[in-house]
TrEMBL record:
<dbReference type="InterPro" id="IPR013210">
    <property type="entry name" value="LRR_N_plant-typ"/>
</dbReference>
<keyword id="KW-0433">Leucine-rich repeat</keyword>
<keyword id="KW-0732">Signal</keyword>
<keyword id="KW-0325">Glycoprotein</keyword>
<dbReference type="GO" id="GO:0071555">
    <property type="term" value="P:cell wall organization"/>
</dbReference>
<keyword id="KW-0961">Cell wall biogenesis/degradation</keyword>
<keyword id="KW-0964">Secreted</keyword>
<dbReference type="InterPro" id="IPR032675">
    <property type="entry name" value="LRR_dom_sf"/>
</dbReference>
<dbReference type="InterPro" id="IPR051582">
    <property type="entry name" value="LRR_extensin-like_regulator"/>
</dbReference>
<feature type="region of interest" description="Disordered">
    <location>
        <begin position="378"/>
        <end position="399"/>
    </location>
</feature>
<dbReference type="InterPro" id="IPR001611">
    <property type="entry name" value="Leu-rich_rpt"/>
</dbReference>
<dbReference type="GO" id="GO:0004674">
    <property type="term" value="F:protein serine/threonine kinase activity"/>
</dbReference>
<feature type="compositionally biased region" description="Pro residues">
    <location>
        <begin position="378"/>
        <end position="390"/>
    </location>
</feature>
<dbReference type="Pfam" id="PF08263">
    <property type="entry name" value="LRRNT_2"/>
</dbReference>
<feature type="signal peptide">
    <location>
        <begin position="1"/>
        <end position="16"/>
    </location>
</feature>
<keyword id="KW-0418">Kinase</keyword>
<keyword id="KW-0808">Transferase</keyword>
Amino acid sequence: MSTAAALFVAVVVVLASPLLASSQQQTPAMMTSPPPPPSPAATNNSRLESAYVALQALKRAITDDPKNLTHSWCGPDVCNYFGVYCAAAPDDACARTVAGVDLNHGDLAGTLPEEIGLLADLAVFHLNSNRFSGSLPNSLGNLHRLHEIDVSNNHLSGSFPSQLLCLPDLKYVDLRFNNLCGEVPEAIFEKKIDALFINNNNFDFKLPASFTNSTASVIVLANLPRLGGCLPSSIGDMAGTLNELILLNSGISSCIPPEIGKLDKLKVLDLSFNSLAGELPGEIGHMTALEQLNVAYNGLAGEIPESICELPHLKNFTYSHNFFCGEPHRCLEVPRVDDSQNCIAGRPDQRSAEECIGFLHRPPVRCDAHGCIAPPSPPPPVHYAPPPPLRIGSGMQVD
């Protein structure tokens, strides 16, 4: 991103930073004072004229506006529209352009029209916590200056918006809490983004090998029960940037690779409600920035490594509903710890003896080179000794 473009995005984020927090205190429908006199007709450049077409199309596509947020969306002066932010264009300091649209928490219902693609200089597009339905328009691929898109907590459907993959400046992608389905393209993990939230959708795909190529600092793939796949040993390659990894309830069937210990910048790791097996690797004790670790509701066993409980910043360690058989006393000194429903002698609220004994009689877990749980080894072949030779009479032998 060029210096001018970076400055453009910074200005937009600063302008839009209050979001709707202040507007919720005094939305257009809630104002009791008389409206101000109409401003003189704006002199629009071609960018603002295109923005006018796009925003009017969006207004027409809104079928319910209970807070009357688009009441001011009349006339050509789009920079005075509620939730619309203008700034100097990054390639022409003398030209104003629409740089941000923020209608978060508006409870708006409707669809998103293709005319959105006319907002060619848009850097921030925030529509979270509304009731928009339908698919995301293909014309999003025209928003080459887009830096942030947040359409979370809506009723959007259709496939993953692959048109986002061609946007060079995109850094923040938030699609969570919608009804999106189908495959998630592997290329999203190759893209140089900073945050990816796609949780609570209906995506159906396997965690790809390219997952560990991501440079994002925050990745949330939670509550995607059709995700599946394994935690690859290459997960350590994400050490340079990853701060939060949330994979809870994502159908992961895997061992936890020891290479995870290379993630020394990771603060939050949530692998709960999956099908993890094997032991908790002691290498997690090398993750010196870790503050929250949750591996509850899996099939992990063995002893809790003391090195994990000695991590200097660990505040919350949850390993309940597994089959651990021992924990160092140091673990009970973590500020918030939950060791319930395991097989730890002398601790309250543990599994029954029958459950624990039954688990011990299961075949040992093996993981292959990719971190996936391998099928049990076949039993060794049974070799039967040949029968003794048959003897007939006292002096005869039949071979």
